[in-house]
Write a structure and sequence with these properties.
about 75% helix; mainly alpha; single chain
């Protein structure tokens, strides 16, 4: 039996859309239990309490008509809590894999703990800026949505604060806005379309508890895949700007391996 460990992902190479997707699925598939557990920690309580109980999905399934307040709270928690925290952990896990660390959820939590609040701050500034741009003229909001997309990754990888992370993301996207937007749109449509099909099939079963359980799994998978894809694209943008001051960014920003870390 071949028990050789898979090669760690190379975060220093250029990847096109196909390579980004295939590497995303490879990383997730090999370490699904870690990525899913990290996502489930945050997704499960929000889906059960807000969507399931308050939004009545546990009682009415796919036919539930949740109150507007429940929908608003669920959206806010996903935007300002689930996405930034899962992204921070995913960035840490992917970096750890690239440096030969066999990650566990506990290791990822410890490694990312010091950056969680700055990540939330960066995502909050991102969301406020994008919403303001959309309200004003729409186009500025769309421009900022891509320009500032990598702020969470910058917080974790570069160890900077929220405002500096927005600048870092802007610098990386500069000159490649259309390419970056196309890659993000393509991945978002793919993950979203696949997830919507699964959710519809679960709703057709007619069991409200099964439907809610399915929502939890689908969202956890989607947010994990998005986090991995965004991290790979972040490093792809760095790689395309070498050689320069970026040359040592990958090694310098590597998460520390715990003394008795997982092997």
């Amino acid at each position: 039996m071949n028990t050789a460990r898979p090669e760690p992902p190379d975060l220093t190479v250029h990847r096109d859309f196909g390579a980004l997707l295939s590497t995303t699925f490879q990383i997730f598939g090999r370490h699904a239990e870690v990525f899913l557990t990290a996502a489930l920690i945050f997704v499960t309580p929000v889906t059960l309490i807000v969507d399931g109980v308050w939004g009545r999905a546990l009682a009415e399934g796919i036919d539930a008509n949740p109150p507007l307040a429940a929908e608003g709270v669920a959206s806010a928690l996903r935007l300002f809590v689930i996405v930034p925290l899962v992204t921070a952990m995913n960035v840490t896990i992917v970096q750890g894999l690239a440096h030969g660390t066999a990650p566990t959820v506990g290791w990822a939590v410890r490694a990312a703990a010091g950056r969680l609040l700055p990540v939330v701050g960066a995502v909050s500034l991102y969301a406020l800026g994008v919403m303001a741009g959309l309200v004003l003229l729409i186009i500025p909001g769309l421009w900022l949505a891509v320009r500032w997309y990598f702020a969470p990754q910058a917080v974790v990888v570069d160890g900077v604060g929220p405002v500096a992370a927005l600048r870092r993301s802007s610098d990386l996207v500069a000159g490649t806005w259309w390419r970056t937007a196309g890659l993000l749109l393509g991945a978002g449509l793919l993950f979203g379309f696949a997830g919507s099909i699964v959710v519809a099939l679960l709703g057709a079963i007619g069991s409200a508890p099964v439907y809610v359980a399915g929502l939890i799994i689908v969202e956890s998978v989607a947010v994990s895949l998005s986090g991995i894809f965004g991290t790979l694209l972040f490093f792809d943008l760095i790689a395309r700007r070498r050689p320069a001051a970026e040359e040592d960014a990958f090694d310098a920003a590597a998460p520390e391996r715990p003394d008795a870390g997982p092997r």
